[in-house]
């Protein structure tokens, strides 16, 4: 999926339609020792829910073919960034 690098959209800070540049934000690395990731490891190791595989086998299986991309719009007039509620879902996303 290709999206244009510059779009005209409404800026809530300026209160008018201005030109925005499209920024693709890469997800940061999850911490390995946070409570959520420790709980997930425990669940996978113990076959909790729908993951009845040990960790090394479980990692090989790739189920999802698309992912949700985090696209943000930066206003060229005031320089503020606007966040979408939900990103776009696509196999591969390019900014022209
Ligand atoms: Zn603005």
Keyword list:
ribonucleoprotein; five-stranded antiparallel beta sheet; Large ribosomal subunit protein eL42; Ribosomal_eL44; 7 strands; Nuclear Transport Factor 2, Chain: A; structural constituent of ribosome; 36% strand; zinc ion binding; binds zinc ion
A few lines on this structure:
This protein is an alpha+beta fold and 96 residues long. It has a single domain, classed as Roll (Nuclear Transport Factor 2, Chain: A), CATH 3.10.450. The chain is 16% helix and 36% strand.
Q: Ends: how far apart? A: 10 Å
The helix count comes to 2
Looking at CATH, which topology would you report?
A: Nuclear Transport Factor 2, Chain: A
Work out the strand percent. Answer: 35-45%
> Low-confidence stretches at least 5 residues in length (pLDDT < 50)?
none
Assign an overall shape.
elongated
The level 1 CATH classification is Alpha Beta
Reconstruct the topology from this structure.
Blueprint: E1 2-3, E2 6-11, E3 16-25, H1 35-45, H2 55-58, E4 67-75, E5 81-83, E6 88-90, E7 94-95
Overall description:
The protein is of the alpha+beta class. Helices cover 16% and strands 36% of the residues. The chain is built from 2 helices and 7 strands; from the N terminus they run βββααββββ. It has helices spanning 35-45, 55-58, and strands spanning 2-3, 6-11, 16-25, 67-75, 81-83, 88-90, 94-95. Strands 2, 3, 4, 5 and 6 form a 5-stranded antiparallel β-sheet that branches. It has a two-stranded parallel ribbon with strand order 1-7. A hairpin with a 4-residue loop joins strand 2 (6-11) and strand 3. The longest helix has 11 residues, at 35-45. The mean pLDDT is 82. The structure holds zinc ion (ZN).
